[in-house]
Amino acid sequence: MPLLLLCLSFLPNLHAQAIPYSRPVETAPQAETIGGGYKTPVVQKPLPRDYWLQVMDVFLLAAAMGISVWLVLKRRSRKWAVALTIGSLAYFGFYREGCICPIGSIQNVAVALTDRAYSIPMVVTAAFFLPLVVALFYGRAFCGGVCALGAIQELVVLKPVRVPERLDRALGLLKYVYLGLAILLAIKPALGRDFLICRFDPFVGFFRRTGAPHMLLLGGGFLVLGMFVGRPYCRYLCPYGGLLAWCTRLARRGVTITPDKELDCGLCAEACPYGAIDHLRAVRKDCLYCARCYDSCPRGRS
Ligand code: SF4
Ligand code: SF4
Questions:
Q1: Which residues contact 146 (CB under 8 A, 6 or more apart)?
Q2: Which of 22, 58, 188, 217 sits between 20 and 30 A of 254, alpha carbons compared?
Q3: From ligand 1's centre to the CA of 193, what distance in Å?
């Protein structure tokens, strides 16, 4: 219901989606109106991505999540889930350079809800809501092989240690603090507004092959840590992960370690690098859809 109300709150902004983008250089006074021999400088920056390509990205995002649900819940295949992870990292990460990004869109959505002068493109709105809607029904399919930030961490997991439960729970609260702070800074008046999540995205520097040295170091630090602590950014800092976790509480389907009857041998809990198995059952809000537990299960192997 809160999600539906949030969707409805965007309706007044729909008209803004029809306004075609116009580069300032085309709407600004031109050489002939300025006079005095003024020459309009050549525009060097690339034009924004074509609208149909942006829409295609949203369809690809939706398709990738559909595939993630199918591979993990139906096929129960770790091998193909890894293939999807690599594909998403290549496309959404390195080719699209971290765009489209539902994580950063939290801030755009927060500003659009609080500032009538600010509206966001439908593609950003869709990117924000789609993973949440999927999580409402099937769990965190977006985190399993679709999100580029999750994918890059997924692929470096080497020898994960088990984080003590209390520490894991305490660190897990950080993402909600980060979420609150990011929203507070985003909804400030336009002049003092700050998009914290984007400024401190640890992996976008790798995707764009450029970035501030301290951010590249931070990203590198997360990847090194991620070899021994499964997906540290996802579990402890990602603000969108907090929203997804909340949505999964309503999900009717999610990872079940064996289709019919658990063996209660504990092999799955040992195999899960994310501490997402409690009492030998997958915990939906923490399960990152990696499908490792299937491989470890004598009954669940695909
Ligand atoms: S927790 Fe956040 S960073 Fe990790 S996969 Fe999910 S959305 Fe992406
Ligand atoms: S329970 Fe753990 S191992 Fe199984 S899919 Fe979820 S995160 Fe992966």
A1: 61, 64, 65, 68, 84, 88, 92, 131
A2: 58
A3: 24
Ligand 2 atom nearest the C-alpha of 257 is 4
Residues 161-173 have a mean pLDDT of 96
pTM of model > 0.90: no
User: Poorest-confidence range of 42-46, 265-269, 285-289?
Assistant: 42-46
Phi, psi of 281 (to 5 degrees): -130, 140
**CA 61 / ligand 1 centre spacing (Å):** 14
Return the ligand 2 atom nearest residue 271 CA. 3
* Ligand 2, pocket residues at CB < 6 Å: 255, 271-272, 274, 276-277, 282, 287-293
Condensed to tens digits (0 to 9), the pLDDT of residues 2-23 reads 555 555 555 555 445 545 555 5
From the list 125, 121, 91, 86, the residue with the least C-alpha distance to 109 is 125
Q: How far apart are CA 220 and CA 272, in angstroms?
A: 23
Return d(Cα 260, Cα 252) in angstroms, integer.
Answer: 16
